[in-house]
Amino acid sequence: MLLPVPAEEQVERLLDSGNLDQAMALAEETLGSLTRSKSSRLKALRQRAANMYWSRGELEEAFSLFTKTLTPPADIYSLYDTLFSDTSAQISVAGLPEEQMKNYHVYLLQYLTKSGIRTEELNTIEFKLVALTDPDKILDLLKEKRPMDMKSVVGFLKTQGFLYMLGVYYASCGFVCEAVEQWRELEESEPETRDPRYPGLSCIIQLLLATNIQAVIMSNVEWLISRDPDRTLHLLMTTSAELNNDHILNLLADRPLHIIAFLEELVINRRTDINRYHTQLAQQYLSMLLSPHTTRQRALLLRKKLQAHLLNSDKYAVSLILNKIQGTVLKKELAILYGKLQEHEKALKVLVYDVHDLRSAEEYCREWPSGRKELHLLLLKIYLNCDKPDQQDSLLERAVEFLNDQLSVFNYSEVYKIIPRDWPVSLIEPLCTDHWDARLTSIGQAG
Question: Which residues contact 143 (CB under 8 A, 6 or more apart)?
């Protein structure tokens, strides 16, 4: 006599024989109407079938059943063979090829996203799946700053060769020093073995600018200068971190253009009060200006900068710079330095007799902050008492123009003592008029 086989047993036999579609059809037909207390049996059968579909690569059927059974994403993740092992060079499911393996990642990632569940464990799983299916989205995921198992993520990124992203991850966690160290290793590695996602030294510069951590910048500055002095200079001139400027200047010593740019940042833009930086800037201008290797165009620019610096700064060692300039062709600069030492006669004689720049000599008198009448008188004497025959006539003419110029200021009684007696009054009529106008105004105010 044949006895009927219970439906559950039939389903089990079908599952054992691998007839998954028939087994699930029978299970849904015969067990779908079970009481609530026995519904867990149907769930277990669905779960078993889902796992079997998974192992066969029939992922659509597998995830349909995972959804019905509300299987936690972490349980599905545990089905992996060599589950994203941090010591495994290749991630696989039962030795599947890479493309088929990617399908597993995609389905699990979709399932995880739909679940809406967020824990440190699931965030870590999602991060790994994104890295394996669409690495370009890793950056967006890191920006969300979700909590993850750091040890697991670091091991995974190293194993999978995502070494640039490892630095990004370190940086997102606030481990700036570790991020820079990781990227330094990439920068120094052979190009053919380097992570292709590594964008180059710019990522290190950008991170240091974004974080402004003095210790990290200073510990890497020498290496950065050796790799890319231009971008490193930009970092040093832009960061808000307090830097060891003396050390930086020593590192830039054999790079004249860079050291000048850094000193200009300190002296001109940041207006440092440190005297030695003002002196160093003048010395660097001079050294490069007098170098035979400096092009004419650059020399013209450097000379303008040097003159402006010598005029505007009062913090450099004037005597030191004067000693370096004496004997060179830099006569206008020599005049500026004499002026700084209050040696006005020497300064004006250089401008008039050596440089032949009368306009600058007159501007010197007008723009000096004090004693302008005395300076005007001094320059007039220099015009009148020239002992160089080839300049005497032109300077006498200039003396007349200087006397009659409305911008000139004089002590009139002193002027009358030194002008030639044979000059007709008409020659200096504007001067005389100004004098009498000033006298009348003074008398009027006194009355």
Answer: 172
pLDDT tens for the chain, 447 residues long, are: 445 667 677 777 777 777 777 777 777 777 665 555 557 777 888 888 888 887 787 888 888 888 888 888 888 777 764 334 443 333 445 456 677 778 888 888 888 888 877 889 889 988 998 888 888 888 888 888 889 999 999 999 999 899 999 999 999 999 999 999 999 999 999 988 899 999 999 999 999 999 999 999 999 999 999 999 999 999 999 999 999 999 999 999 999 999 999 999 999 999 999 999 999 999 999 999 999 999 999 999 999 999 999 999 999 999 999 999 998 999 999 999 999 999 999 999 999 999 899 999 999 898 887 888 999 999 999 999 988 888 988 999 998 888 888 888 888 788 888 888 888 877 777 776 655 555 444 444 544
Whether 365 contacts 376, CB under 8 Å: yes
Asked whether 157 and 163 are in contact (CB, 8 A), the reply is yes
H or E stretch at 435:
helix 429-446
